[in-house]
């Protein structure tokens, strides 16, 4: 009977925090814009395939949008997990920005998304962003010629 409290103490002080830490660091954040010229294409050809591959790799993907509301375009549907303002960047091991996150609507990149990219960069998290100058430049992460520093790809 004396071993049970000792096991409980070991579990709660050593194993439980490492299990919880491992869970939070296995999460990847995807920042999705709510306005896109081709939202259906973005959901079907960017977000859904990435979601599948990330899950296959043993990670979980949390999708954040400005409002946190469901995005539906014809047959494509995307249900975000949280609002950009509710994201705690320390809970993630990386950030993904789908191709259609940015586009031809200049003022539609949320300020909260720019701030999260800055935080991810400062935390030295990997940032995967394709054609995302409208997001990375305001975050101060581009150089002349479109070359991204250290952890951006």
Structural class, please?
Answer: alpha/beta
* Order of adjacent strands in the largest pleated sheet: 5-2-1-6-7
User: What's the domain count?
Assistant: 1
How many distinct helices? 4
Summary, kept brief:
With 153 residues, this protein is of the alpha/beta class.
Describe this entry's structure for a reader.
With 153 residues, the protein is α/β, with parallel strands linked by helices. It has one domain (27-136): Class I glutamine amidotransferase (GATase) domain (Rossmann fold), CATH 3.40.50. The chain contains four helices and seven strands. The strands form two sheets. Strands 5-2-1-6-7 form a five-stranded parallel β-sheet. Strands 3-4 form a two-stranded antiparallel ribbon. The longest helix is centred in the first third of the chain and has 23 residues, at 3-25. The protein starts with a helix and ends in a 17-residue tail after the last helix.
Topology:
Elements: H1 3-25, E1 27-31, H2 39-56, E2 60-65, E3 71-73, E4 76-78, E5 82-83, E6 94-97, H3 111-122, E7 127-129, H4 133-136
Parallel strand pairs: 1-2, 1-6, 2-5, 6-7
Antiparallel strand pairs: 3-4
Give me some keywords for this one.
153 residues; Rossmann fold; disordered N terminus; five-stranded parallel sheet; two-stranded antiparallel ribbon
């Amino acid at each position: 009977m004396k071993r049970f409290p000792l096991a409980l103490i070991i579990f709660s002080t050593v194993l439980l925090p490492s299990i919880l830490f491992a869970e939070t660091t296995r999460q990847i954040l995807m920042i999705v814009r709510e306005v896109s010229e081709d939202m259906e294409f973005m959901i079907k050809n960017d977000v859904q395939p990435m979601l599948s591959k990330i899950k296959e790799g043993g990670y979980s993907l949390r999708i954040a949008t400005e409002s946190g509301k469901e995005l539906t375009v014809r047959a494509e549907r995307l249900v975000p997990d949280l609002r950009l303002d509710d994201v705690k960047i320390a809970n993630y091991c990386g950030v993904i920005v789908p191709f259609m996150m940015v586009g031809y609507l200049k003022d539609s990149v949320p300020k909260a998304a720019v701030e999260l990219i800055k935080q991810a960069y400062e935390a030295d998290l990997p940032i995967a962003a394709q054609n995302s100058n409208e997001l990375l430049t305001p975050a101060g992460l581009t150089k002349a010629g479109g070359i991204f520093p250290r952890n951006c790809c």
